Each structure stands twice: as structure tokens, then as C-alpha cells.
TrEMBL record:
Residues 58-223 form the Band domain. The chain crosses the membrane at residues 12-33, 39-63. Pfam families: Band_7 (PF01145). Signal peptide: none annotated. SMART domains: PHB. This is SPFH domain-containing protein. SUPFAM superfamilies: Band 7/SPFH domain. InterPro entries: Band_7 (IPR001107), Band_7/SPFH_dom_sf (IPR036013). Keywords: Membrane, Transmembrane, Transmembrane helix. PANTHER family: BAND 7 DOMAIN-CONTAINING PROTEIN, MEMBRANE PROTEIN-RELATED. The keyword Membrane applies. It comes from Paenibacillus oenotherae.
């Protein structure tokens, strides 16, 4: 079912008509029983006018900002009024309030397995609002509960599609390293799920992401080892460049070294640069040979 506008006019018209009918009905009843004489026609007119006053009053509805009224007439949906103010609608209708305000849903911390099978804990916040009151009211039982269930389902599905982290410069999106991309993917999937409820997803963000306690310690050691290996690779690359530059500078200055002395120099420079401790100099007082 799709939303459409219901017939409505300024509510002061209904207020004015109700007041006029009520006053006229009161006077008609008064003159119908004045001086002890009963005037059937006047009494009948007075009762009819009072009924019309009640009908006019029943058509009056007041709408607050960022709210809407679903108008149904004996079970039939006849439209929605979403403009704030006082309005006159079809009399004897049921008017259900639907909020159009922006709201947040903060999911619980869910325990799922990522793409590599590692148990992780993940949570997300979803910012949404109702854009189709008819769908939100008639196509789902309770759209707020529907948003909650579908949000947690989408978070579980997205978490299972990606690894928590990419080690050794692996290609692909990871939950930790590509939070923006994951949030956009979650938003797109969630919007597809919530279209049936007339809900627009404005933003999604991961609010919690961590390894489960049973593997957190082991994965932390893995991350530390990976960081150490990466750092060592950078140090070695830098050391090789420095040694190469030193040998080139010696050649440019006319200092020639044979293969054995060159190898010894390279070994000493690499040890001094790559070592994580201060190098201890050793003075050779004899011949290298």
C-alpha cells in the first residue's frame, strides 16, 4: 500500500461550523419548549443541529510538527495528513498518529563469525525515519520492531561477508580497516530490507567491533607479530639502501675495496643498522687476512 494525501481543509471551518450548529441547536430546543408548549418541529431541528455539531467536531484533528495522521473510514484507508496544524477531515474517521521524526536504533552487541570463521563481537547504530506512513502502518505489524530485527540481521550478514582484519596486505574489505565502506554496504542492504516498511535509512555506523574474549589474546599476538614483521621489512629495506649509498660514496671518493673487505663492511653496516640494540664497535688491530 502506498501513501497518498487525504482530503482536508482548514480546521477552523470545522470549529466554526460546530459552534454555529451547537448554538443554533440550543436556541431551537429552547424555543421548542418555551412557555411550556412543545414545538416538535423546533425540537427536531434542534436535535439535528446538535448532531451536525457533533459531526463537525468529529472531523477536527490537530497535527504536531514532524507527525502525520493516518485517516481510515470504517476500515478503509482514505489518505494521510502530514502537514502540521488544525485540519478538518472526513467525519467519523479513525485517526492514527505516526511520528516522522528522525530516530536511532542501537543494536545489541552481536557475536558472529567473520568471513574467516573467527568469532567476533559487533554492534551498529541505525539512523532512520518514516517516509511512507501507509507502508509503516499497514504493511508491517510494528515498524519499529521490524527495523530492530532487520538491522541486526543485516549486521550479522555483513559481518559474515568480510574478515575482521586483512593480514600481510591481503586484498579485500575488512571490518576494521574499511569501516566507511562497511557502513555504506550495511546501509544499502538495510535500505532494501526496510523499503517494505516505508522507512528511509539515513546513516549506519559500527559502534562496537572486537574479537570474542576466547580468541582476543591470540589474535592480539598475531597482530603484534604482523606489525613486527612489517617494521623489520621496512628497516631492512632502509638498511640496504643506506649500505648501497655508503659503498657508492666510497667508490666515488676513489676508495677501492676488494670483495672480502666489501663483504665485511656490508655485514658490519647491516648489523649496526638492523640490530634493535646499540652496536658494540670492535677494533681490528691485525690484518683482515
Amino acid at each position: 500500500m502506498k501513501e497518498f494525501k487525504a482530503w482536508h481543509i482548514n480546521g477552523f471551518v470545522a470549529l466554526l461550523l460546530s459552534a454555529i450548529f451547537a448554538i443554533a441547536g440550543g436556541f431551537a430546543i429552547y424555543y421548542g419548549i418555551k412557555d411550556g408548549d412543545t414545538n416538535i418541529a423546533s425540537l427536531t431541528a434542534g436535535i439535528i443541529l446538535l448532531i451536525l455539531a457533533a459531526v463537525a467536531a468529529s472531523s477536527l484533528t490537530i497535527i504536531q510538527p514532524n507527525e502525520a495522521r493516518i485517516i481510515t473510514f470504517f476500515g478503509k484507508y482514505i489518505g494521510t495528513v502530514s502537514k502540521d496544524g488544525m485540519w478538518m477531515v472526513v467525519p467519523f474517521t479513525d485517526k492514527k498518529n505516526v511520528s516522522l521524526k528522525v530516530r536511532n536504533f542501537n543494536s545489541q552487541t552481536l557475536k558472529v563469525n567473520d568471513a574467516e570463521g573467527n568469532p567476533i563481537e559487533i554492534g551498529a547504530v541505525v539512523v532512520f525515519r518514516v517516509v511512507d506512513t501507509a507502508k509503516a502502518t499497514f504493511d508491517v505489524d510494528n515498524y519499529e520492531r521490524f527495523v530492530a530485527i532487520q538491522s541486526e540481521t543485516a549486521v550479522r550478514h555483513i559481518a559474515a561477508q568480510h574478515a575482521y582484519d586483512n593480514f600481510n596486505d591481503e586484498q579485500g574489505i575488512s571490518l576494521r580497516g574499511n569501516s566507511d565502506e562497511v557502513a555504506m554496504e550495511l546501509m544499502g542492504e538495510l535500505q532494501v530490507r526496510l523499503d517494505v516498511a516505508g522507512v528511509q535509512v539515513l546513516e549506519t555506523r559500527l559502534t562496537h567491533l572486537a574479537y570474542s574474549p576466547e580468541i582476543a589474546s591470540a589474535m592480539l599476538q598475531r597482530q603484534q607479530a604482523s606489525a613486527i614483521v612489517s617494521a623489520r621489512q621496512k628497516i631492512v629495506e632502509g638498511a640496504v639502501g643506506m649500505v648501497d649509498a655508503a659503498l657508492r660514496q666510497l667508490d666515488d671518493n676513489g676508495i677501492e675495496l676488494d670483495a672480502e673487505r666489501r663483504a665485511a663492511m656490508v655485514n658490519n653496516l647491516m648489523v649496526a643498522i638492523v640490530s634493535d640494540r646499540s652496536a658494540t664497535p670492535v677494533i681490528n688491530t691485525g690484518s683482515l687476512y
